[in-house]
Amino acid sequence: MKFKIEFSGHENIRSNHQKTIEITKESHLTSRGDCIVGVNAKSSCADLPEELKIKLKNPDSKVTFSIKVGDEDFVIEGSGHPDLILTHTEDIVIRKSDFICPRTLAVKCDKASDLLPRSMVSSLQDPKTIGIFTITVE
Q: The pTM is what?
């Protein structure tokens, strides 16, 4: 199952957090949001289809995320978890740790925002840049 979320860039995108990656529906971003790679996202955890939420709560599910900006594609692999809450109305966060809160979409991910290619980060610092965050659950 695949689900795509469109988001846009912002001049304050830094993408240098070592444990998480976040996209948000909010349009405002301060430089303190160093895990955020996109704003104005079309969906949050709460907006995901029920079928996808059920699959994400299966600990055996293989979860892959793709962040596509222009010709560049950044792929992250993570895990679902039975305790996922998936109710946050603004944000989606994927984590290297196993910390769970209403914003958490996946845990034990193999990458965080600090590994996003710097050329992609530069593109995302332009508010006109559109990115696609794709969630694939098998």
A: 0.96
